[in-house]
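can u do me a favor
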């Protein structure tokens, strides 16, 4: 019986030896996700996180949609996005700039292979005439239009400010001036609204700034008479 078992073992060894030389390295197919880069894999970190530079065994690169504009992708005025793509050119994920009430969520590349979202307020960063335009996800300037052609004290008009919605400011007669000083009944103050062109945050002349001028006159129904 022992002789029979020994003969069987020798036969198996002979069969294996016939197809594999001593010292020959046997290669195995690359398996993505085993944490051992091999074959045609760029990388293999053994996980499915695309923010660590490797995804599906391909290297990942972060691209800023507005990186060429200013400050490495942080550009509150330009609506854009940041995205990750692998070495084959496939887009893995895209993050787009967005608004939440007065806040803007700016997406940009924080590392060569990961995206960061940082919250800003347009007014604090750029000036009081800026707001977050939710239609496009960027900081935009308000528009200012005048119904009476500007500082026209003899015409009762209004100024319309458009941000996400429109708000009108009407020329108004005041019985006190802005400091609260009481005026006698023979004279009133006119609060005259008009648009002012200013250079906000170095972005150029913007005719969107609302100003109010206080004028002493005989005022009736929002105009001097």
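np, heres the sequence
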């Amino acid at each position: 019986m022992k002789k029979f078992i020994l003969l069987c073992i020798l036969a198996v060894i002979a069969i294996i030896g016939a197809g594999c030389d001593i010292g020959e390295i046997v290669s195995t197919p690359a398996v993505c996700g085993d944490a051992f880069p091999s074959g045609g894999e760029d990388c293999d970190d053994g996980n499915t996180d695309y923010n660590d530079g490797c995804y599906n065994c391909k290297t990942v690169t972060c691209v800023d949609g507005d990186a060429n504009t200013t400050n490495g992708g942080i550009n509150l005025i330009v609506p854009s996005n940041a995205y990750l793509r692998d070495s084959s050119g496939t887009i893995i994920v895209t993050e787009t700039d967005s608004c939440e009430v007065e806040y803007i969520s700016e997406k940009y590349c924080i590392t060569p292979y990961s995206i960061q979202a940082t919250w800003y307020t347009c007014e604090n960063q750029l000036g009081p005439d800026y707001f977050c335009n939710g239609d496009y996800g960027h900081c935009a300037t308000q528009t200012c239009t005048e119904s009476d052609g500007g500082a026209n004290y003899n015409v009762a008009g209004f100024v319309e400010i458009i941000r996400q919605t429109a708000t009108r400011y009407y020329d108004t007669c005041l019985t006190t001036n802005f400091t609260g000083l009481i005026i006698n009944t023979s004279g009133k103050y006119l609060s005259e609204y008009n648009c002012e062109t200013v250079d906000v945050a170095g972005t150029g002349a913007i005719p969107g700034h609302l100003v109010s001028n206080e004028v002493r006159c005989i005022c009736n129904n929002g105009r001097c008479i």
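The chain has two domains: 50-127, 142-224. hope that helps!!
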